[in-house]
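Hey,
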Amino acid sequence: MATKIRLQRHGRKGYAFYQIVVADSRAPRDGKFIEKVGSYNPNTNPATIDLNFERALYWLQTGAEPTDTTRNILSNEGVCLKKHLLEGVKKGAFDEAAAEQKFQAWRLEKATAAQAVKDKSRESAKSAVKERLEAEKEANKAKAEIVARKKAEIAAAAAKAKAEAAAANSPKEAKAETAAEEVPAEASAE
């Protein structure tokens, strides 16, 4: 029986996630499978991969052929490298301790590279937020200047109108003020 390691689609339209399964190559994509060895969710950033490393390695060693996408996933997780190193041990190229040391060095290098990418992403997000904040402050300052100018123009126009009204009404106001001063004087005399 020819076995394949492939993806089995789940989820809804526009939001698919996948199970990594070992299945007979003649079985339908979402049909019967032999064993589930992991899951893959491309909707998260970065994509979430949950893999049973030992079982995936076992199936690769027994001759299961991964599909192209599954091969990429297994390579990124280090299953293909581990298989390659174990084949080197079988051929006598190096011992198992050296193979394990090479694999751990690769895993450490991959982890540091992934952490560097996460740090860079975090820093770029922080700088983007800072730039947006600075741009918003500048926009608010410009709006505040425009509002202050308009208020000053309105205040100047109101003062001018008040001055013109005062100048136009000044003879009448002067007479009214003198009349108002005379009335209390008369009221106090009584």
